Each structure stands twice: as C-alpha cells, then as structure tokens.
Amino acid sequence: MCWPPSSRAWRSAATARSTDVGNRLSRIYTRTGDDGSTGLGDGSRVGKDSLRVSAYGTVDELNATIGMVLAADKVPDAVRETLTQVQHDLFDLGGELCIPGMETIKDADVTRLESALDALNDDLPPLKEFILPGGGMAAACCHLARTVCRRAERAVVALAREEEVRPQPRHYLNRLSDLLFVMSRVLARASGFGEVLWQHQRRPKPKPAS
Description:
Elements: H1 7-15, H2 21-24, E1 37-39, E2 45-47, H3 51-71, H4 77-98, H5 107-122, E3 131-132, H6 137-162, H7 167-191, E4 196-197
Antiparallel strand pairs: 1-2, 3-4
C-alpha cells in the first residue's frame, strides 16, 4: 500500500477492494502533484494546503504516532488490541475525509472507544495531580499521539466550518484523545517508570511588586 496514504490509495481502496493491492498501486510517484495540487478521492483537485488535505494528512500523522506506541516495549495486550483497531479506524477516517460524501466512521465506533476508555480507567487510581508527558517510551509516544489527535480534531473542525463534514469523525477524534490520555497512564504504570507528576512548587513564587 502506498504510504503515507495518498488520495489515490484511498480512492483505490474504496472502489477496487477486490483487486490485488500490488496491481492497483504499482506506481508510487506520478508527478501530478508537482504543481502544489493533489487529487481528492472523488477525482477533484485541490491545493496541498487545503483544509481537507490538512485534515486527512493530520489523521495520517496520528496513525503514524500510534504506530510508534505499538512499536514500544511492554504494551499490555488490551492496549495493543485496541490501538490496532484504532489504526484501521483512522485509515477509514482518512478515506472519509479524502472522499467528500463518503461515510465510514459510525456512532458504534465512538461507543467502542468509550467502552475501552471506561474499562482501562476503572483500574487506575484517581487523578489528583496534572501529568507531564513521559513515564517510559510507550507512554511518552502515547502522549505525543494524544496531542496529534487534538490537532487532527481541530483540523476537522476547521474543515467543517467551510465544507460539509459529518459529526462522527469529530466525535471519534474527541473520544480518542481522551482514550490516549488514559492509555498513557496505563503504559506509564506498566513500564515501571510511573507517571510523571507536575510539581508546581518547582517554580519559585513571584515576588510582590515593590
């Protein structure tokens, strides 16, 4: 599969799922984007800096950062299984954003994230302090994925102000960012490093003006 996913890859996946991947994506470069434009999944062309390209491009970046989490050591099976499904969801979500009018993310996908979040959060102690990104490689990568997820959500919101976008992609990304935060806590504890708490007392209090 062409990676990162281009509109050509998503369009091919949507319209020719029964065809061998190697046959439909035998060429990686086409030179058609040398003028700063790219083709959407419906065949129309837009600038590479368009809101739609920014939205599905950031979703692609999010998928890559989740891949970093899965490549780390000591990832519990429950987290690994959930994130593997999320990667498939995000590829589908990228297709929806790349092909105007396409519908892939369902309300059931959002509910599934909520169920996973509740199950993981039930085993965690109550959060009494702010947490800093860290706690081992897997947890740190998960924090990175969380911030990219928030950026992807902002990109989808910006796109929805200008074009028609269903609410499900936005809901999915919103829940996913919460899930990634909870997962970062789980991963920090599983790694043995523990969570990194913000120590507000480290910054000296400002002196009163004279």
